[in-house]
Write a structure and sequence with these properties.
This protein has helices at about 140-145, 150-155, 190-200, 430-440; strands at about 30-35, 40-45, 50-55, 65, 75-85, 90-100, 115-120, 125-130, 175-180, 185-190, 210-215, 220-225, 230-235, 240-245, 245-250, 270, 280-285, 285-290, 300, 315-320, 325-330, 335-340, 345-350, 365-370, 375-380, 390-395, 400-405, 415-420. With about 450 residues, the chain is mostly beta strands. The radius of gyration is 20 Å and the shape is globular. It has four helices and 28 strands. Strands 2, 3, 4, 5 and 6 form a five-stranded antiparallel sheet that branches.
Amino acid sequence: MNFKLSAFTFVSFCFAAIVSVPAAQAVSLTTIVEGISNARGVTFGPDGTLYVAEPGVGGNGACQPSPSTLFQPICAGNTGSIVRVKTDGQTDRIFTGFQSLAEQPSGNQGAGPSELQFDSYGNAYLLTGYAGYPGNRDLETITLGSNYPVPPQQLAVFPPSTPENVLNTSNLAKLFKADLNTGELTEIFDFAKYEIINNPDGGDVVTNPYKLAISGDRAYVTDGGGNVAYNIKLDGSDVKTTALPLNIITNPQLPQLPPGAELPPGLINFLPPDENGNPRISIQSVPTGGAIGTDGAFYVGEYSGFPYPQDKARIFRIGEDGVPTVFAEGFNAITELTFDKQGNLLVLQFSDVSQIASPDISNLPGSLIQLGTDGTRTTLVAAGEGLESADGLTIGPDNQIYVTTRGVGPGNGSVVRVNTGAQPVPEPASVLGILALSAAGVGSKFKGKLKQLTHKFKA
């Protein structure tokens, strides 16, 4: 077992991403709002108000080990909110004091409010994260979890809590309809209960709802802990799930551990060597970003699990049949996708390089890439140009691109507007990608000395 770290034509399975992406010219960023803790999803309301999910920094409540922090504890508090920026520039917070989980005392790796989105009628919906064994959430889920099995290796590393030590965070790992005027939340779906009962990918029992997209009367959610993409009616019925496949890595680069240190059991799944004797491992998908294409399919980007292999993150297309096919590949640590009004797919990378040895995951070199409808691939914002550890992405009513950056740590986060004069440059070896786009219809932390092996995603 490997812990969750959290075809209509024959060519539509792969968008070849073989060479480096040409950098854009004359990019600049304008800061819209800053001071956000563990900044997550960003969106605009019907009236042009901007909303940013702030998972918060946890608190001094009960704790649980989390796959998101390689089993270091995250602790409960009431520090989450939604940051609101009105059209006149005034900033405030709504849903303040929302339940939150994070490392202590750093306040990093927050899980709480993940994203706010709107349907075509202007109704608001709130998605909340979690990052751990769902039974630990509250007394109801710990009781429910006692009736369903937990894999043995999970029991050894991050077992269920005792009833007196549950987190008491009953509003996490849920989808709500949200009244932005009164603050009232109406529960639509409980991902924690669903994971306990169904465990769609058949692995360890973990949930972390990460990103939300809405189309028509349906919500589309990526669960970076469950390795699942959800498709749910907005009344909570007709639940459809797609488990994202493991990624097979040949000749993986594994971290060099300090003397005497060992990887937690089950963190890496070693496979038999290939026909040439090369070592192989399988890693979790860790689906994060998600967007609805003009063809109605759900496109899902993955962060990729430990040990975060370079250039191995994929983008999947999930059509009406619920079967995931690889639409594009060759990325790193994808945290969000969105389509612009021209049908180009924008891909946000938390980091351009593997974070395996980075001591500071709040300042990794993120980037923004455009996949054009004609098969071109263009870097709109290159690594080192201001999108460090970026997480949220949206197109504003002004048709400009907005990104949440510095998505790890208390008060680090901001939202920036991307001002770019990029000119698309066709990528070599992109014929398969052109055909696929046309056919689709859319253009660780360890304890002690291992603390530097940290990672970003919320498993």
